[in-house]
Amino acid sequence: MTELLRIDGIRKTFPGVVALDEVSFDIRTGEIHTLLGENGAGKSTLMNVLTGLYHPDRGQITISGCPVRFTSPRDSLAQGIGMVHQHFMLVPGHSVFENILLALDHVPNLIPRQQMRQKIQAMIDQFDLGLDLDSQVWRLSIGAQQWIELIKLLMRDCRLLILDEPTAVLTPQESDRLFEVLKQLKHQGKSIVFISHKMREVMEISDRVTILKKGRSVDTLERGQYDQTLLAQLMIGNDKVPDWEKTGSTGNDLVLEVRDLIVKTDRGRPALNGMDLELREGEILGIAGVAGNGQKALAEALTGLKEATGGQILARGNDITNSTAKSSYIAGIAHIPEDRKTIGIAPDMPVDENLIMKSFKNRAFRKGIFQNRKAIRDNAQQKIAQFAIKAGPQGAPIANLSGGNIQKVIIARELSEHPQVLVALYPTRGLDIGSAEYVHKVMAEGATKGMSTLLISEDLDELLKLSDRIAVMFRGRLVGYADPATVSREEIGLMMSGEVPS
Ligand SMILES: Nc1ncnc2c1ncn2[C@@H]1O[C@H](COP(=O)(O)OP(=O)(O)O)[C@@H](O)[C@H]1O
Ligand SMILES: [Mg+2]
Hints:
The chain folds into three domains: 3-236, P-loop containing nucleotide triphosphate hydrolases (Rossmann fold, 3-Layer(aba) Sandwich); 248-332 and 419-502, Rossmann fold (3-Layer(aba) Sandwich); 343-418, no CATH class. The chain is 33% helix and 26% strand. The protein is built from 17 helices and 22 strands. The strands form five sheets. A six-stranded mixed beta sheet has the order 6-7-8-3-9-10, with helices on both faces. Strands 16-19-20-13-21-22 form a six-stranded mixed beta sheet, with helices on both faces. Helix 3 (96-104) runs parallel beside helix 5 (142-155) and helix 14 packs parallel to helix 15. It starts with a strand and ends in a 6-residue tail after the last helix. It binds adenosine-5'-diphosphate and magnesium ion.
């Protein structure tokens, strides 16, 4: 196969961060080339360099042997390089057709609208995408919106398509469909850069894999030269991954019940629309669903951040929905929020203080009316060691820590009071593998001690690995429960698109 594009010695720094240190590899015509790396390895940055959004500090990109310099994504598009970003760039109030036209706006084209429409329709039919050109974009599923982004690039005749973690937002079925289309495109001679950190997908779809670690390209391997173990090794290197085992068994007592719960979004739309749920003692209850189907509202209602406008929340049989008992229930609940930077921490305060925010009334940290500095420091030292937190210099604001370490601080704090219930909303999103395993370990050990956990996640592998049961949510309601020991990914996928199992 012939080489299409070569990346040579690319370095890219941001103030205080070396995002890319030394990256070199090539992309061939008609291959699916996976870029594999942990969160923060530099994958998105590299693709932003490749598409001209960022300028590298050093290094070179060559196409068919000729050096190129992109100063904007327009330049790279002109060379046939296009990217589907992690966050789509669509106008929600416009139709599918209008959105595609908009993307073609500044491409010199003399093709009349009607012909354009036919061409797009032919593409939809060819790949069996089932898109209606006249639908308004906001009505479409995330999966359908991703098709639009892909069509935009194909209409511009891109020969290199970059997809940055495209499956993160898809159901298993939608991912499978995407893979079929990508393989079809490959056979038509397109080159595809597929970005992921999900090993199973990487094994399925790649012709070659380039592993990126801490801003460096570690190696490029052909299918057949690698297996899952080798890839994982190359991806995380010598970083320690803690091991854990889940031994506890679920009790029969209902710790928490949600009945027909209604919660509205800030804009008054229903986020929970008659939600039911039962959480048992010592249980890890996984909540599966495509993000945006009410998961956040559920977590917020259960942790007292949002009021219910209908239905009931029962804690060990007592209705606490709107009662004064609610605050004492909430005091006994731990919460790992989705947005760590704004509601999980006090960013300007040091780690030591952030670790006791939940225990500020606790006598252990006071001497009369004053804070007990030594006790606070001792507590921090103990937690930092226990959770392997890389805390930086003492007294520095917590905001300086990496995402994984901030998450560990939150977890160390939330679990220090031995809560009965933990509500964890996407707790490992954006974490490196070591930190993610730490979170898993903490939940598994908590369950052994009788803590009940609501684990809300979009990572099916994580849910299948940890959960005693999996509840699937769709459009603000419970679709049903699945047993992780017996359910197939396909069955859960169907439930995620609203299909009630028979
Ligand atoms: N615009 C930016 N400003 C400062 N730092 C950035 C910026 N974009 C990325 N980074 C940093 O560069 C590193 C690599 O990030 P990224 O390319 O997003 O990784 P990945 O896509 O592999 O998860 C991270 O440490 C990230 O915080
Ligand atoms: Mg990224």
